[in-house]
Task: structure prediction
Amino acid sequence: MKRTLISVCGLAPQVITETLYALHQQGRLPDTIKVLTTRKGKEACHAQLFSSGDGQYHKFCADYAIESTVINFSPQNIITVTDDRGRSIDDIANEDDNRIFLRACMIHAYEASNNSESEVFYSIAGGRKTMGACLAAAAQLYGRPQDRIFHVLVSPEFENSREFYYPPLPPREITLLDEKRQPYRKNTRFATIQLVTMPFVALRDKLSGGLLQQVEMPETLLMALVEEEKPLLTIDLSHKKLRWKRREADLSPTLLALYAFFAQWKKGSPCQDVACRGCPICFLEMPQILEPDNLEQIATLYQRIRPSCDAEAMSDTGILSLSAENFNSLRSKLNRRLLENFGAVEKEYLELTSQGIKPGVRYGLQLDPEKIQLIW
Ligand SMILES: [Zn+2]
Result:
């Protein structure tokens, strides 16, 4: 059975050689290694693991008599995660970077586990904590019974040493730092490296065929795993969240007020068609949305959700001075939040849609009014 190791890595490539050492001790070396990292992480991997002459990966293989052809691992296997424009991200600095990184984890977990005659080891020890969390989520969703999620525990005094990559053969003295950051010498034979196997629920087998045709984001897969007989969209204004099929999404007061307005509108519509897709009663054209009565309703909703006055809402682009332009920007933000929280399939049901073509575009919710409840 072919074995792939997928590892996340930040600026300390030690984690790769440490994981390899631990797997070697267990007689479970991988056939292929893929490292998911950032641009800076890739530079660190190239410099420390593969540099000619003193690359630590080559040293590890030489020390433990591992032929270079046994493991498919070279600089090409260090994969930087790229944004929409194909640029490698420098670091995981914000929510967007995190989502890009999560997507990369999903892609590689999906591909590596597509072959049922393979096993995939996921090492979540390297990089920022969020990177390990992303890989663990991907492993869980695409994981199968034969796959594993590992963490690596290195004896604390060796863990942060720049000189320590794995216990070398023969063991030798290296410089470590004590608690007061004073240097001292210690022999590497005292170093221990343990692989900790993390328990997880392997969900891939529970995903139906259609969902495995291509890679999906976690929220889409999670929603597909929930079966509910009569789903009800709850718009909980006092807790500022939406609930749908046992999942919750937190929304800002602005987005929540806008969504609640359209939910109320739909619920109040006398239209009899439960699957209505854009009738002029259920769906509003822009000039109607901007009528004073409706703007006042939106403002009232907002102020009930967020009683204290705030500058953002009062600003020209805020909810309290709604224009066609900021309506569209808020609508796309809202729909993006729905996508991120409930996945692509459910977002289709829940989104604030636009129907028809300019200049007669109408906006509203498609959801059956009986499936919507607003609570305070
Ligand atoms: Zn209608």
Q: What stands out?
A: Residues 269, 271, 273, 276, 279, 281-282 surround zinc ion (CB under 6 Å). The first strand starts at residue 2 and ends at 8. The mean pLDDT is 91.
